[in-house]
Design brief:
The complex is a heterodimer of chains A (about 260) and B (about 400). Chain A has about 260 residues and is an alpha/beta fold. Chain A is built from seven helices and ten strands. Chain B is about 40% helix and about 25% strand. Chain B is built from 13 helices and 14 strands. The chains are: A alpha/beta (about 260), B alpha+beta (about 400). Chains A and B meet through helix 4, strand 5 and helix 5 of A and helix 5, strand 8, helix 13 and strand 13 of B.
Chain lengths: ~260, ~400
């Protein structure tokens, strides 16, 4: 209003008074300029954080990580969970995994830095129950991050797709008010399965504000021993409008649990 | 010092299941002479049956529970064989409780590298004498308490060697339930938010002394890794026999009971201050007609509580036939040992309230059996799938 000259300001005031008189005092509210800073959780890979924009996986939003098996998406997701658990000394954050494929590995979670004492493992059955539990978990506002592992175990029929269309807007809305990031893992199906299973991931991807695709490039080898692999990450969808950009990250096998003396 | 602790978890129940294989996989509890539960199977424990519970309470918790009297003679013979096999190495051995013994390795090995083959050998021998069902776990450290804690946290068939430099780091996250403190003291500590040995070790010494007395001070020293108790060979007599003369002679049980308790109380208190208890009690009664009677009672676990002693003595005096009035009485506390931390399952670390647990409890009401948690049961196990377990969370169940 400070940029308006005197006449315009007076006309605006008159218009506001007239509208409030007609529709009530609460009808108009001052708008705020959208903040360029978005809260996020680091993936612990600087190149990936830079690619995702705003420093990593955004809070209050849906993120899809897709790729084939052993492409590194699960490792990145676990790293995000471990980062999400890091709170202040007064308050530690908790995270949850919707383990749809019953495939969560506590050993790998621990090695990725996830504190199992602050991890809730949920194994729902059916699409509707999965989405209901997800909605309740988001609404509880007790969780800093929720990982759904994975969409390929969930979106297997038309019924699931319609459930997603019904429930995802509510989940998205609940996320806006919760200090939580929702990560969805999506695994590409083999080509021979395509005629049998409908492509239903698109419904979920529609609600995602960030979509990263992972492709394993090569194995990293030292002295004849595989020590990790290199992954090419591509930005498929983002609020920062830089679709198509990519980054390369290296995932190393380390911190192997040392076996104890056995007799 | 260089102390190895050899521990067979749930020794008494393991013996019962070994001798009666049909008991395996069923809720079973063994009852001591005082009709209290002295050993429970894991299935019975899951139903809520705990040690020192009355048989009636146990049946209320789990109607399907099978209650059997403890075969004390067989158990003692097996315990003797277990300790005897460890003693064959020629080193001092102390039988602390059922299926638990300390071996002083000071004379032969003092570092984790040199101790390892000895521990492995003794473990094999213990396993050989008890059979495949009763697999011991082994802990080693420079003090008895830490060695015992190490054995308690090791998987059966494995050993955990705690380096002296890592003692504090090892003890810090462990539950205070490992300390043989009284249930009341543990309850107070839980209310104060003290749940780990590390938290307890950091408390001001004077505050611990003021609130929990000498036993609390001693327990704090153990929690700090400062346990100077040597390994003692089995001690037969805890205190010199105490004589009580009744003049005039009496036939009243209550009078005899009160006199006995007032005489034994100082000895019991002295044992409790050292976190020890009496394992065996002997009474020699001399009657007016010159006849004598002897009572020899063995407690399943060492005890230092006056209420338990009162109940035991009252029961023994009731069942004894009195030919005449009592003239004199001689009592002896025999064979004392370290108190057993029965409270482990009551005050576990997992009972800590957390927003996550509250959330799971809230949602469990609507979704039932959907919520789980991973528990790191054996972080160092060579097989990754054995390093942790997954527990189901139900409404109202602690996670």
């Amino acid at each position: 209003m400070g940029t308006l000259n005197g006449t315009k300001s007076e006309r605006l005031k008159a218009a506001i008074t007239q509208m409030e008189h007609r529709w009530g005092t609460g009808v108009l509210a001052a708008s705020h300029a959208p903040s360029s800073h978005r809260e996020s959780l680091s993936t612990t890979f600087p190149a990936l954080d830079h690619l995702a924009g705003s420093g990593g996986i955004p809070l209050h939003a849906v993120t899809v990580l897709s790729g084939k098996a052993t492409s590194g998406k699960l490792t990145v997701a676990y790293k995000v969970l471990s980062r999400a658990q890091q709170g202040t000394p007064e308050r530690h954050h908790s995270v949850a995994i919707l383990d749809l494929g019953a495939s969560s590995d506590p050993d790998y979670l621990t090695r990725s830095g996830v504190d199992l004492n602050r991890l809730l493992l949920v194994r729902p059955q059916g699409a509707k129950q999965t989405l209901r539990v997800l909605l309740d978990l988001v609404r509880s506002r007790e969780l800093r991050a929720i990982l759904m592992d994975s969409l390929s175990d969930f979106l297997i029929d038309r019924e699931a797709a319609s459930a997603v269309e019904q429930m995802m807007p509510q989940v998205n809305l609940a996320l806006k008010g919760a200090d939580c990031a929702l990560l969805l893992l999506d695994e590409s199906r083999p080509p021979w399965l395509s005629p049998l299973v409908a492509e239903t991931s698109r419904a979920v991807r529609h609600f995602a504000s960030l979509h990263l695709e992972f492709v394993r490039q090569e194995w990293i080898e030292t002295a004849g021993e595989f020590i990790g692999y290199r992954v090419e990450t591509r930005l498929v969808k983002s609020r920062s409008h830089r679709q198509g950009e990519g980054a390369t990250i290296a995932i190393a096998f380390n911190e192997t649990v040392r076996p104890r003396e056995t007799w | 010092m260089s102390i190895m602790c050899c521990r067979v978890p749930n020794f008494l129940m393991g013996l019962a299941e070994r001798d009666k294989p049909e008991l395996a996989g069923r809720p079973v509890a063994l009852l001591g002479a005082d009709e209290l539960v002295c050993a429970v199977s894991s299935e019975a424990r899951q139903s809520g049956i705990t040690l020192q519970m009355e048989s009636r309470q146990a049946r209320m918790r789990c109607p399907d529970v099978r209650l059997y009297p403890l075969d004390l003679e067989t158990s003692q013979a097996e315990q003797g064989a277990f300790v005897g096999r460890l003693a064959e190495c020629g080193l001092p051995v102390e039988a602390a409780s059922w299926g638990l013994a300390y071996v002083d390795l000071h004379a032969v090995a003092a570092t984790s590298q040199t101790v390892q083959p000895f521990c492995a050998d003794l473990g094999k021998q213990a396993r050989g004498v008890l059979g495949e069902n009763l697999v011991p776990s082994i802990g080693w450290d420079t003090s008895k308490f830490t060695a015992r804690a190490a054995a308690s946290t090791a998987t059966p068939g494995h050993m955990r060697l705690v380096d002296h430099n890592n003692e504090e780091r090892f003890l810090r996250p462990l539950s205070i339930g490992l300390l043989p403190l009284s249930p009341l003291a543990l309850q107070q500590l839980t209310w104060l938010g003290i749940r780990t040995l590390g938290q307890f070790a950091k408390l001001p010494k004077t505050a611990v002394w003021q609130r929990f007395g000498a036993e609390g001070k001693l327990a704090q020293q153990w929690a700090q890794g400062r346990d100077t108790r040597p390994v003692r060979r089995t001690i037969e007599e805890a205190t010199p026999p105490l004589s009580i003369d009744f003049d005039p002679p009496t036939g009243l049980h209550s009078e005899v009971l009160e006199a006995l308790l007032s005489n034994l109380r100082p000895s019991l208190s002295a044992l409790a201050r050292r976190l020890e208890g009496c394992r065996r009690l002997r009474l020699d009664l001399h009657f007016d007609d010159d006849s004598t009677r002897h009572v020899d009672h063995t407690f399943v676990e060492p005890m230092a509580e006056e209420s338990r002693l009162r109940a035991t003595l009252s029961h023994q005096l009731e069942i004894l036939s009195w030919p005449a009035e009592l003239v004199s009485l001689k009592s002896s506390l025999l064979d004392y040992g370290e108190l057993v931390p029965h409270q482990l399952m009551l005050f576990d670390l997992d009972t800590e309230r957390s927003p996550l647990r509250e959330l799971a409890e809230k949602l469990s009401g609507r979704y039932r059996e959907l919520f789980f948690r991973f528990l790191l049961s054996d972080e160092g196990h060579p097989l990754s799938e054995r390093r942790s377990t997954m527990n189901l969370l139900l409404a109202g169940e602690a996670i």
